[in-house]
Amino acid sequence: MTEEIKSLDELNAIAGDDAAETLVEAAPREPVRDDLGRSYATGKRKDAVARVWIKPGSGKVVVNGRDQGIYFARPVLQMILRQPFTVAGVEDQFDVMATVKGGGLSGQAGAVKHGISKALQLYDPALRAPLKAAGFLTRDSRVVERKKYGKRKARRSFQFSKR
To answer: Alpha-carbon distance 133 to 111, whole Å?
Structure first.
């Protein structure tokens, strides 16, 4: 350990502080793509888990073998799926293929959104900053509270009757 400190001190003395800082800096992130040019990520929300593949294309989104407009019929859910592309500024540049299991439609839409965000930042590491600033890379950990014994629901008690 002391030898490393000595060598950094020597590096500072010879080349200046800038060279030592570049030596210590972390390597830039590399794009992660498979042989077909796709990036894969897993998104989660509530009880839903989404497996998401993205590749360059025309903006077509397929969820569980169906078009997004058919699978997510409500416009709010379709808007949730478009958010990562809007924030990153890459609308209609990627095709998405996702499979979702578990939860309801709202949780599934959130899971696909999380997966798309993670896959985008893996495909192009430059998109990480806007996606992270918007909070799309963070898994929303809120889940339904479990039911306790002696209670009607998680916290709701049975009605008390004095007489």
So the answer is: 18
Give the chain's largest Cα–Cα span: 89
How far is residue 57 from each of residues 28, 85, 90, 97, 110, measured CA to CA in Å? 26, 13, 11, 11, 22
From the number of C-beta atoms within 10 Å of its C-beta (0-12, 13-18, 19+), residue 128 rates as: middle
Radius of gyration of the chain (CA): 23
CA distance 157 to 152: 5
pLDDT digits (tens, 9 = 90+) for 57-91: 999 999 999 999 999 999 999 999 999 999 999 99
| Single-letter code of the amino acid located at 115 | G
Q: What is the 3-state secondary structure (H, E, C) of 8-59?
A: HHHHHHHHCHHHHHHHHCCCCCCCCCCCCCCEEEEEEECCEEEEEEEEECCC
Dist CA 160 CA 163 (whole Å): 9
Distance, C-alpha 129 to centroid of its chain: 13
